Request: fold
Amino acid sequence: MASDRVVRPAPISGFPEWLPEVRRVEQSWLDRIRATYERYGFCSLETPSVEALEILQAKGETSQEVYTLSRLQAEAADADARLALHFDLTVPLARYVAQHFNDLVFPFKRYQMQRVWRGERPQEGRFREFTQCDIDVINVDHVPLSFDAELPRIVHEVLTELEVGGFSIGINNRKVLQGFYAGLGIADPLGVIRIADKLDKIGSDAVGKLLATELDLTSGQIDACLALAQIRGADAAVVDTVAGLGSSGALLDEGLTELAYVLGELADLPGGSVVADLSIARGLDYYTGTVYEGKLLDAPGFGSICSGGRYDNLAGEFIRRDLPGVGMSIGLSRLFAKFVNEGRFTEGPKSPTQVLVVVPSAERRPQALATAAALRARGLNVETYHEAAKIGNQIRYASRKLIPYVWFPPFDDDKPHEVKDMTSGEQIAGDPSTWQPA
Amino acid sequence: MASDRVVRPAPISGFPEWLPEVRRVEQSWLDRIRATYERYGFCSLETPSVEALEILQAKGETSQEVYTLSRLQAEAADADARLALHFDLTVPLARYVAQHFNDLVFPFKRYQMQRVWRGERPQEGRFREFTQCDIDVINVDHVPLSFDAELPRIVHEVLTELEVGGFSIGINNRKVLQGFYAGLGIADPLGVIRIADKLDKIGSDAVGKLLATELDLTSGQIDACLALAQIRGADAAVVDTVAGLGSSGALLDEGLTELAYVLGELADLPGGSVVADLSIARGLDYYTGTVYEGKLLDAPGFGSICSGGRYDNLAGEFIRRDLPGVGMSIGLSRLFAKFVNEGRFTEGPKSPTQVLVVVPSAERRPQALATAAALRARGLNVETYHEAAKIGNQIRYASRKLIPYVWFPPFDDDKPHEVKDMTSGEQIAGDPSTWQPA
Reply:
């Protein structure tokens, strides 16, 4: 009996969930990402959703909104050390590598596909719980530059597999930016990076003004900085273009050499899918070399679909070792939700079932069960209809769930089994011990 | 450079995490559970980790310890509606079915493999974050009894696939218990169920005393209740045994008929793996018919490895429809951690890599990359060694990660490729476009 008091459930903004037909596609996306990451030998890692708050804040000024946990029934006397949900997978990786340092083989190549949480204000319409798919290489003391090329290659393969449409992974190098700015005589290159990172959002005029007012840059310096950010290119020719802008220095040269190397390693990928983009700054302080940012070609305003970069020392807050690394992250939930909102996945099957076995009558139910078992034994996903209902109702159930085949055990042992292809409508004889879906 | 201040990371009690070689096994467990659930046509579902607290508490007296969330940077003015992490997957299922009622096809058959959180005191050594693998059928108004048999069959298949060793899934029926107690003239049958649920923990003497002191049962009633709880059996013979204990009534008969039906449906499973166990009570008030509890035969004291039952109305707090269901849950983390603690999974491969391709020299690196790409194109998981190091170091890396094959591209294009089986030590010629692992 339905109870009298009803708490009507409502979606909580920022916490997406999907209908079964959409969840099925999400799962296939996760499977494909995992398979591609593993094809390059990266191991799976999962860490708890929860970290000590002091770990999450060890890097200092965390601008991320964090959710802390409280026990509903806690008494003041046994208050926990403060725990919080992780807001990304990079800090947990750093903590994990430091904690398990002696048990890992380096270079440590791992992927991690997990939910993260951000305590955003509900009204902002952003996700507060979402899945990221990260891939990183960490090593002791030194990470070969070849990984800076391997990671965008892997992510390129993932995005191609997911059929997200045209995309471009932009690559830049922080040494180029810092070296270029320093070569112009600018005192605070990191300050320029932080301001240049806003180019996409506020445009070049506004960035130019900020550079003048906040960092006292001359108009010549500003013009050069903005000209640098205009540069795009798929090959080492960008190096000459940068060199033509009148800055110079050892760090700039080093950055350009690295950038040219990474582009060269990726030269076999389809034209335009990986490009040098000198406007990419990635505001985070910890990037020190290569930086990445991927976009959809037909929705550049949608923002980054993957990003990452190289860091000199991932876990310096947690262990007295130098552990440089390079990593990329695919913002799965945001990307997936975009396609969901476009209505792409609403028409698919509502279950993994390949075959619905009809129960012809109560008496013939054992034969239906045996048929389903025979099909399952060969790895097929099979439902038996749950009662000896009218055949029309059983077929309608298959049709509503978009189950591709309906199996009819015979009413009589002398007759053959038949199987109906629900797409073509064709119905033919089938043997449960040999039949395969088309 | 390592920084001066180090926050030394420590495990947080109750939040397990695994080394890569153990995580690999955990992942294969999850894959196998998912594959088996899908083989029976159940669809995947994931819900947010977070629910409104009023949803989690809608069923009233929640004895579960719940973690609520607070935004670290929240101002009092924009305090969220209270959010909390789900403590099981049943309440989220109820909320989901009510919320998406019009978009689901019934009977709704779903599985859900997700983390849940319990705000236990840290010192208790229990998990505070763990993964459950639930499978449930929900229908409008009526759920055929055949599902009461299908679910333990599926879970039986899962546990067999996981090679957990000998196990037994015990089945009982709340109607049998309630009908039996009522037939003895006991005024509060549910009270007896709550006390009888403690049999495993406190023993029959203590249960007998509680029945006397708390419910005023006569010694004859107590003896009959305790005798009922002694009954085990793999087939309908238990019905006669129960009938011989001197209680009777329509509800008891109905329960015995259901129990006999479920046992009959499962009669083809290996002897002893599914048994009637009249001691199973499952304290939760919402079970109304079949109840389940699975145990490991060689570790009965370890407690239940799976459990569940039938409920008359799952979502009555959330929607004015009768939505009965039946479900089972595998406590994956607890079971898996048991085997981890026994040291079962510590010796396995540390990555999914099947082949490590050696980089013979800096000059031959392109050939190594091309070899790896050719192997990957055929679906193999392949790493290229990250630098042109000494061959011995490259082989040692493969050996430490337990990579089964090491591939040697030739130093010279005229020579053949060779591949070494790291287990047998055998090294033979191989063609990247055709070679397959043994």
About this structure: Chain B touches chain A through 103 residues (CB under 8 Å). The radius of gyration of chain B is 28 Å.
